[in-house]
């Protein structure tokens, strides 16, 4: 009978989850329907360029790229936080289906994981009834927070939807250590999937929860488990974390407003400006969208509303959550305190309890520039969790049928209201185009740069007196570059002044400058006339040349990690300059690698017998920090799995012994 009841329970919950999946699918349908079409939005195109560099290398050269000649005049891309090449999701979705289609499929998967995770969290941990769990899951998945982030280029934010499942596994680990490894697996998968800074608030959420559990309930195991997760996360994730730390500690890392480096933002006041006040918090929760860019390319938001602070619920879910916290305070007190903490993080100095200023003193968190964007998700999650508890109230009243009728009526009204008002972010996306590059892929690789400095403009005016250089648009040059680099990459063209969150100082010399922005993303890059916005750089000497004679050298091989130059009659002591940024992990088959004014160079020392012969110079890039990180990750993973397997066998033996004794 017990088994039968379990089957009925599972079947009923399976039906509810299936309905939630349908709601989720219909909600995302406008976004995934034209699955091969790309949103021409700079941040989306920027992330797609990260995906495309890996995909091109695997398809064309059958290898994972560690170095990218296309970004920033040569960039150690294996270190970048948004590199997805180590993620299983890349090989399941991006490699077979393409950057654009694969990314949309990953977003859909994240939504499914999110709606299932919060349903089981509410149903099994908080012991909500099916209606309450359904309501919490529905309003969580229909909030405008993620649709707004996706419509404005936030391609990595859907990974936050895994938080309810992470929390559920973390809580279950208090009873069974096996769930601790499930929690760890999800966090590692998110790290490998290029989430970047977004993973830091997830750890903050777990830390706050563990600390509150200790302070309120005297439960020490949560804090112990949190420490174990942090240690194992660092060890298993070493293949990503050690190279990333190496990049952040590099002296050549730029410290611009958007490339934070290891020190983060020195000015807390700059960060504090991007927070809520009471008025904007109210608008964020109760002002329906869509908030889309206007003609001036500025956020078309209600007065004072922060660009990152859209999370529309409407009044009913918020009222439900308030009553839920009041009526079931003992059950939900930890989540209420968490809500207060995360609201305070989004508000900064606008409230007396300014914990944002304290958090800003810690590494990683001091690099978060938009508190309202990074911490508002957890406000959405906690409101959603509390709102479903209101459906437990029917057990307290005599007229249960009448009460449940009114609750269901208002609950369904809230769900339909959120669905109708928040789906508009997807249905109103007009700037979607086919993922097509009309220009042919260039046979010979070269690099370009924006013509933004006045000195450069004067130089080109000197060589071309009648040249009419177009005036710059109001949008920032680096923002336009986000989209530009995706289309250039697909045409075998590099971009020296790339946009990449974590940039290094670029020393490479571009072959062309451009002042034409990507309104249409260059229909034909082969049209290299000044009228098309392309100006040849008089200082360009080639992608490879001999320093002493200035003779240009052709690459016989140029792929992400291997350069090969074949040339005859080279001076025995010649220096060959490669128009790529210097990096200490380059090795040469002949001669020695040297830093030449920030550029990669090979200093030859050939015997006279080879001077008249054809010389083959091969350069190979293999980073040692990746090797060390990979070894740490590999052995940590083996030890962790061995420990888990031993625990599982031990539990099976205990279970078998108990069964025999009972029999």
Core attributes:
about 675 residues; alpha+beta; four-stranded mixed β-sheet; four-stranded antiparallel β-sheet; about 10% strand; elongated; disordered N terminus; disordered C terminus
Chain-wise SSE layout:
Elements: H1 2-32, E1 37-39, H2 42-60, H3 88-97, H4 99-125, H5 130-142, H6 145-151, H7 163-172, H8 178-192, H9 199-217, H10 221-236, H11 238-249, H12 268-272, H13 278-286, H14 315-327, H15 329-347, H16 355-359, H17 371-387, H18 400-422, H19 424-427, E2 432-434, E3 446-450, H20 454-463, H21 477-489, E4 493-495, E5 512-514, E6 534-536, E7 544-546, E8 555-559, E9 562-568, E10 575-581, E11 586-588, E12 592-596, E13 599-603, E14 614-621, H22 624-662
Parallel strand pairs: 3-4, 3-5
Antiparallel strand pairs: 1-2, 5-6, 7-10, 8-9, 9-14, 10-13, 11-14, 12-13
Helix pairs in contact: 1-4, 1-5, 2-21, 3-4, 4-5, 4-7, 5-17, 5-18, 7-8, 8-10, 9-10, 9-15, 11-22, 14-15, 14-17, 15-17
């Amino acid at each position: 009978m017990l088994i039968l009841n379990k089957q009925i329970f599972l079947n009923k919950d399976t039906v509810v989850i299936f309905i939630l999946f349908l709601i989720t699918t219909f909600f995302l349908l406008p976004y995934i329907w034209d699955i091969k079409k790309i949103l021409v939005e700079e941040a989306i195109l920027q992330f797609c360029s990260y995906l495309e560099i890996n995909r091109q290398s695997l398809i064309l050269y059958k290898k994972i790229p560690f170095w990218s000649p296309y970004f920033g005049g040569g960039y150690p891309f294996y270190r970048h936080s948004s590199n997805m090449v180590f993620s299983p999701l890349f090989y399941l979705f991006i490699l077979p289906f393409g950057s654009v289609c694969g990314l949309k499929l990953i977003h859909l998967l994240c939504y499914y994981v999110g709606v299932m995770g919060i349903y089981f969290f509410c149903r099994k941990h908080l012991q909500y009834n099916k209606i309450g769990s359904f309501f919490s899951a529905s309003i969580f998945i229909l909030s405008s927070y993620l649709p707004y982030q996706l419509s404005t280029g936030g391609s990595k934010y859907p990974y936050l939807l895994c938080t309810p499942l992470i929390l559920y596994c973390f809580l279950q680990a208090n009873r069974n250590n096996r769930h601790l490894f499930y929690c760890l697996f999800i966090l590692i998968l998110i790290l490998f999937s290029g989430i970047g800074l977004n993973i830091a608030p997830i750890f903050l959420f777990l830390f706050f929860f563990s600390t509150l559990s200790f302070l309120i309930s005297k439960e020490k195991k949560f804090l112990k488990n949190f420490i174990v997760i942090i240690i194992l996360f660092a060890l298993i994730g070493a293949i990503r974390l050690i190279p990333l730390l190496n990049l952040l500690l590099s002296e050549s890392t730029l410290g611009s407003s958007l490339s934070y480096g290891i020190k983060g933002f020195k000015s807390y006041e700059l960060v504090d400006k991007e927070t809520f006040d009471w008025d904007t918090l109210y608008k964020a929760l109760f002002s329906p969208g869509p908030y889309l860019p206007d003609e001036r390319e500025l956020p078309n938001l209600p007065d004072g509303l922060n660009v990152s602070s859209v999370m529309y619920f409407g009044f009913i879910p918020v009222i439900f959550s308030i009553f839920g916290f009041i009526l079931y305070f003992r059950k939900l007190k930890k989540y209420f305190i968490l809500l207060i903490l995360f609201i305070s993080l989004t508000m900064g100095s606008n409230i007396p309890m300014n914990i944002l200023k304290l958090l800003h003193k810690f590494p990683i968190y001091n690099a978060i520039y938009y508190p309202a964007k990074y911490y508002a998700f957890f406000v959405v999650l906690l409101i959603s969790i509390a709102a479903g508890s209101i459906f437990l109230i029917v057990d307290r009243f005599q007229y249960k049928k009448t009460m449940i009728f009114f609750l269901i009526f208002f609950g369904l009204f809230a769900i339909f209201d959120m669905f109708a008002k928040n789906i508009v972010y997807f249905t109103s996306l007009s700037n979607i185009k086919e993922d097509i590059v009309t220009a042919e892929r260039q046979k010979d690789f070269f690099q370009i740069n924006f013509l933004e400095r006045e000195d450069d403009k004067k130089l080109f005016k000197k060589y071309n007196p009648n040249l009419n250089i177009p005036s710059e648009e109001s949008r920032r040059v680096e923002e336009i570059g986000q989209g530009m680099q995706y289309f250039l990459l697909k045409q075998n063209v590099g971009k020296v002044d790339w946009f990449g969150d974590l940039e290094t100082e670029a020393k490479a010399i571009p072959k062309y400058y451009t002042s034409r922005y990507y309104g249409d993303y260059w229909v034909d890059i082969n049209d290299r006339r000044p009228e098309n916005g392309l100006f040849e750089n008089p200082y360009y000497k080639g992608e490879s040349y001999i320093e002493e004679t200035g003779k240009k050298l052709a690459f016989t091989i140029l792929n992400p990690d291997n350069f090969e130059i074949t040339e005859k009659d080279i001076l025995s002591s010649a220096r060959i300059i490669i128009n790529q940024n210097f990096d200490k992990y380059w090795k040469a088959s002949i001669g020695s690698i040297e830093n030449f004014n920030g550029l990669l160079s090979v200093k030859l020392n050939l015997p006279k017998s080879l001077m008249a012969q054809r010389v083959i110079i091969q350069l190979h890039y293999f980073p040692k920090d990746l090797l060390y990180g990979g070894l740490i990750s590999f052995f940590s993973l083996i030890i962790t799995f061995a420990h888990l397997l031993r625990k599982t066998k031990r539990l099976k033996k205990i279970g078998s012994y108990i069964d025999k004794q009972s029999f």
